[in-house]
Design goal:
about 525 residues, alpha/beta, Rossmann fold, eight-stranded mixed β-sheet, six-stranded mixed β-sheet, 20 strands, globular
């Protein structure tokens, strides 16, 4: 028993260690110290210091959100704004240095965070949804790291105050009523296991692992993006449709890649498709591992490569392949990378095809005309952050925020016995938001938002194709749709011409089955 208690104590201590973000756009460490000082000042002014009022301190230093705003009810947000984390070898004789994000900013995830802010501001200005009530937010950068996501999950459960007072113990309700995120499946799994026991609902915009549909393990998890089970089956049917029966397969060595590829290979086997190789790697692996995967692709006889991988892994692999050109390959992509415009610079992937989340329009979300130094127009910048022409996952973030807002609205109004007038002074628990989230069913900007018994939406995808434009650049073109809600035989359709890797109309990649 004592050993178990010691282990639990160590785990909680590690979870609450100082893990400051390298991107603190709206805050600084001084803000936390100042907040602590204000709390100390207030205690001298009127908070009882008798034994009935216990002074509690969080262990470690509070990790700061990159964006934050106070409100009557606060929503948490977790995005992989950076895709790498600075790693340090610890000797554990001294307190480890705080973990820091490193590398360039992932502009698409930065746009996700801004979309969350945009949606909350839109709701706060609404006279129909939560009138008179102000939503706030705390948005964190997870560095695409499970370790950081775990720390953020603890913090979202605890709140930002490093010092607080309670009646007789150090327990208190977390500040957030729900969480939007994470971008990846592995961080989302870890977060759900931490905040789940506290009944804090989590709505992800891009965590697609089919494993997250298991409500026995993840009862608080919802998502606005379809489960990979649907995508894996759709990809297998796509490969079979074009007669590609001899393929190669690469995947992220993560919950997303391993589970997604397992589902795809199972579906491919049923379709009579053979796999020459199946390789996995992760962005933090040594370069030699990525070189090995690239060499396997170069030496293979399969002309078609199915990549069930995240953006970070695909970028590293394509950069490695670009160093030593190999015979052209027909790339088949999963939604995590095939619609990411940052990868269109790899011209040797022209002809790539895969399923992406439906393109959408969010009224009012176009980039404004604010300038950087008084001369340039931000609209002239060529960046995924400013590109609002293909809002796919961004719309999933937008829908997630609105789903949570509708659930909060129902929870608050139910307590005030009114369907329209909600009192901002009504206190609700995250469990009540969780209950209402299961019943959410509304339309916004022409898009339906609801969840089935597994917390999943209806699976709908666009089939996208990387085609060369007249100028020679690669552009993303929608060539078909897949709708899992339609009857068998009508789910998958192609309505535009496709361009393959060799510039022709189709690539043949077959091998006789003995």
């Amino acid at each position: 028993m004592e050993i178990s208690a010691l282990c639990i104590g160590l785990i909680l201590s590690l979870g609450l260690c100082e893990l400051n973000s390298a991107l603190a756009l709206n805050s600084s460490e001084d803000d936390v110290k100042q907040r602590a000082g204000h709390i100390e000042d207030r205690t001298g002014a009127g908070v009882s210091t008798q034994t009935s009022s216990v002074k509690c301190k969080l262990q470690g230093t509070t990790r700061l959100p990159v964006f934050s705003m106070d409100g009557d009810y606060v929503i948490g947000g977790v995005f992989s704004i950076h895709h790498y984390m600075h790693t340090v070898k610890h000797n554990y004789t001294t307190m480890p240095e705080p973990l820091r994000c490193t590398g360039s900013i992932k502009t698409r995830d930065l746009r996700f965070s801004r979309a969350m802010i945009f949606a909350i501001k839109e709701i706060n200005n609404s006279t129909e949804l939560l009138p008179g009530i102000k939503l706030g937010y705390q948005i964190y950068d997870s560095c695409a790291s499970v370790t950081v996501a775990v720390h953020v999950a603890f913090q979202l459960s605890n709140g930002l105050d490093p010092v607080f007072y309670t009646g007789d113990n150090c327990s208190q309700s977390g500040m957030v009523k729900a969480v939007v995120g994470e971008t990846g499946s592995s961080p989302s799994i870890s977060m759900s296991r931490i905040i789940g026991p506290f009944n804090i609902p989590q709505v992800s915009h891009l965590a697609t692992c089919a494993c997250l549909s298991d409500k026995q393990q993840y009862p608080n998890f919802f998502r606005t993006v379809p489960s990979d089970q649907f995508q894996a089956e759709a990809l297998a049917k796509l490969v079979k449709h074009f007669g590609w029966t001899w393929i190669g397969a690469v995947r992220s060595d993560s919950d997303y890649g391993n589970n997604g590829m397992a589902s795809f290979l199972d579906a491919a086997h049923r379709e009579g498709i053979c796999v020459e190789y199946s390789e996995s790697f992760y962005r933090t692996h040594p370069r030699s591992r990525i070189q090995k995967v690239a060499d396997v692709i170069r030496r293979s006889t399969a002309m078609v490569v199915v990549a069930f991988a995240a953006f970070g892994e695909v970028r590293l692999l394509l950069e490695e392949l670009a160093l030593e050109p190999s015979p052209p390959r027909q790339w088949i992509g999963s939604e995590a990378w095939v619609t990411d415009t940052e990868l269109l610079r790899f011209s040797f992937c022209a002809g790539a095809i895969g399923f992406g989340i439906q393109k959408s329009v969010i009224p009012g979300a176009a980039t404004d005309e604010r300038v950087c130094d008084g001369t340039e127009d931000i609209k002239t910048l060529q960046s995924p952050y400013t590109d609002t022409s293909q809002l796919r996952i961004t719309n999933m973030v937008y829908k997630a925020v609105y789903a949570i807002a509708h659930a909060i609205h129902k929870a608050v109004c139910q307590k005030t016995n009114s369907t329209t007038q909600c009192d901002k002074f009504t206190r609700i628990e995250s469990k009540e938001v969780l209950t209402q989230l299961k019943k959410v069913n509304f339309s916004r900007n022409g898009y339906d938002v609801s969840f089935d018994a597994n917390g999943d939406p209806v699976a709908r995808y666009e089939l996208v194709n990387w085609q060369k434009s007249e100028s020679g650049s690669i552009e993303m073109v929608t060539v078909g749709q897949y709708d899992a809600s339609l009857p068998v035989g009508q789910k998958f359709r192609i309505n535009r011409n496709l361009t393959w890797v060799d510039g022709g109309t189709q690539v043949r990649s077959t091998k006789a089955i003995m």
